[in-house]
Amino acid sequence: MKRAEKKKIKRRYWKRKHTKKSPATAGGKVMHLRSSPLTAYFSDTAMTKILTQVEGDVYHECGAFLIGNLMTDHITGHTIAIVDDIYSDGEYGTPSNYSFSSHMQVKALNYIERNYGDAKHMIGTVHSHAQFDAFYSGTDYDMMNSRRSEEIHMVLSPSHRTFVLTYKDMEFVYHNDIELADPAVFGYRRNPQ
């Protein structure tokens, strides 16, 4: 056997061995899983409101609740987050802190009920880090761990033009490899996590 043929066989074997396959089948074919557990879609309305809030005062932190739906494809296990709107009380925190109050959460739930009924839900949070780079602080993790639910969380830094985005599942496992349906919509650079 020639050297080139051996290399070809090795490559074929390596490819088969390192391709992830799900046990689920469709039409007799094995389906391949996506590498990311979640794809996030942000509507123009949601992005406009997020950027208006975050860039309204770049020296103080602010935050909002994300409104939309989280849906899971039961065959592939892939989750899709559709963010249609946000709720913010318009308030800003300090240059290094923002807190999501219980009162704001109740107001957000009332806003959702009044405008969407049961069609949409509170699916996470977004907040800014004003003059700091985008990252998850200890305070952020405390806030994200306060509820046992599937959620997406985003931190934006208007001063560094960066963002981080994570998906927390029901077991409090964080997935940072979220796909953005349209990454250019932000105009911000994604920070490695």
Residue runs with pLDDT of under 50 for 5 or more positions? 12-35
How many domains is the backbone divided into? 1
> Structural class per helix/strand content?
alpha/beta
CA(first)-CA(last) distance:
47 Å
> What is the overall shape?
globular
- Return the string of H and E elements: HEEEHEEHEHEEEEE
Number of helices: 4
Q: Do you know the CATH topology?
A: Cytidine Deaminase, domain 2
Average pLDDT taken over every residue: 82
Helical percentage: 25-40%
The count of strands amounts to 11
Largest sheet: 9 strands, mixed
Rg of Cα set: 20 Å
CATH class: Alpha Beta
CATH architecture: 3-Layer(aba) Sandwich
CATH superfamily: Cytidine Deaminase, domain 2
Strand content: 25-35%
Write a compact overview of the structure shown:
This protein has 193 residues and is α/β, with parallel strands linked by helices. It is 26% helix and 29% strand. Strands 3, 4, 5, 6, 7, 8, 9, 10 and 11 form a nine-stranded mixed sheet that branches. Strands 1-2 form a two-stranded antiparallel sheet.
